[in-house]
Amino acid sequence: MEPATTNPLQSIPFVAVHVGAGYHSPSKAEIYKKACREACNKAITLMREGKSATEAVTEAVIILEDYPCTNAGIGSCLTMEGVVECDASIMDGKTLGFGAVGALTGIKNPIRVANSLLEEESKGLLSLGRIPPCFLTGEGANRWAKDHGIEGIDSKDLITDSSLSAFRKYKHKLNTVAARNDQSLQNVKSKKRKTETNSTNKDGEASENLLDTVGAICIDCHGYISSGVSSGGLALKQPGRVGQAAVYGCGCWAVNQTSSHQSPVSAACSTTGCGEHLLKSMLARRCTEAVVTAENTTQAISHVFKQDFLESPFLASVSSKQGGAIVVRSDDCQTELVWAHTTDSMCIGYMSADDQKPKTRMSRLPESGVAGKSLALEGIAAKVR
Which of 15, 132, 208, 249 is deepest in the core (most CB within 10 A)? Predict the structure, then answer.
């Protein structure tokens, strides 16, 4: 895939965002939708002013990171040691450039650091012909942020009352199990584990699945597309663990395909769910590549989710596969948005520059669906110009 060298036809800017696939209680649906609306409004405002898709994605994700209800930036899940470690990445469909950070601590908006890496990569080689990094982790990522004018924050300020309460609850459960039976950890390893993201607890009560990875896809007025994603990872994750949100081809993907033999096509994906499941399936790249040449975008995404995720041989040992994605495809006829998830629910938002206000949707599995085994899939189409 070659990067776009000429501008596609002038387009109507478009943005789609998500605040994660997991379980979202009805009582909290409005706050998630509010976050989506604010992010959409910000992105469209910037692109109406002529800003690029990459700039709009970055600012939209920053807004989502700043909402304490999401598992990204402030309010992220805590590691086993009670620390916030975040992952984020961004991809520019015009240049095919990519920037990412993993296990990043002490930074309010990880997507800023990922975008900084993307920007530096676009400038070419460093002094002495050194290759600029596109993916940094831990202390190296934190140092890069400070060296490039991104201020740090006390790690404790990233912890909210809600995330701390959840950490203490899960840590207590873990300690209780260990105290009850010294062999419990060995027994768990030898048994088929239940997924960390079950939508109900042992009492049958709904619980919040902390998989609220956030993401955005934008198409600017030139038809260029970009995608980004940011996540706090799984609750009680191992320190240093990096999920799909930071990994090439797994968290986000974006391409502008131009050819003298066909109309320009822009396509992108931003994923959410259990990072390990999404890593092994490389879902972001698979979804994007599937829709570039597809005659039916919705059918293409349905096929990818079923064949490359739910029935993937790389996830054969996983009984409940937790994942979701937003996918955008645009050509000279229309812009299409498709969202899909195997979790109980997923909240998304979208807006065209022609719209007066954003639209939001709390998508849920049908009553007959089973989280981790069933698929919810919907889509919309918008004008291009």
Answer: 15
The Cα–Cα gap between 131 and 138 comes to 20
Burial class of residue 298 (count of CB atoms within 10 Å of its CB; 0-12, 13-18, 19+): middle
pLDDT tens per residue across span 296-339: 999 999 999 999 999 999 999 999 999 999 999 999 889 999 99
Query: Where in the sequence numbering do the catalytic residues fall?
Result: 213
Q: How confident is the model at residue 195 (pLDDT cuts 50, 70, 90)?
A: very low
Question: What's the whole-model pTM score?
Answer: 0.91
Residue type at 163 in one-letter notation: S
Distance of alpha carbon 35 from alpha carbon 65, whole angstroms: 9
Residue 194 burial (CB count, 10 A): 11
Q: How many helices (H) and strands (E) does the chain have?
A: 9, 13
With residues binned 3-state (H G I as helix, E B as strand, rest as coil), the percentages for the chain, rounded to 5, are: 35, 25, 40
Q: Which residues make Cβ contacts (< 8 Å) with residue 100, sequence separation at least 6?
A: 87, 88, 89, 90, 114, 117, 134, 135, 136, 246, 247, 248, 251
